[in-house]
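Supplementary Text 2. Reproducibility record for the structural model of the 141-residue chain.

All settings were left at their defaults, and a single model was retained for analysis rather than an ensemble. We include the record here because the model underlies the residue-level annotations in Supplementary Table 4.
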Amino acid sequence: MKFFSAIDYQNQLIIASLDDFSPNATLSTYRGGQDGGSYDVWHQAVIEFLCVNIKLGFIEATHRPEIRAGYDVQKLENMLLNGDEATNMDASILWNVLYFNGTKKLIETVEKFNLRSWNCAHLDKESEDFVGFLKNAYGIS
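Retained model, structure tokens:
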């Protein structure tokens, strides 16, 4: 993984376990989010976050059943970069209208670490146990 930020991943996954979210709302504090000075880095980090977490079954697209847990994320990555040819929708629009939510697997995991609450969604300090679990799931040493 190129863009892993433990605190940002932790907080975004907690949010995903509580509510749906769009790509534009993803990793909102990483490098200043979509309005920060590192837009391209943030943009790629969001794509990586969505793809890795769909692949691992932690999130899925809310209104697009074909983008489910374990989905081949190459098509999603292409849509977020180039738009959706099937619906003739520009990528910039998709970043606002495509929504994701946490799966049962994510909800159970976040609950296991006692982090599933809005109070935990914007922590300044990472949960060592939860982040350790994520690093193991992502294959990060």
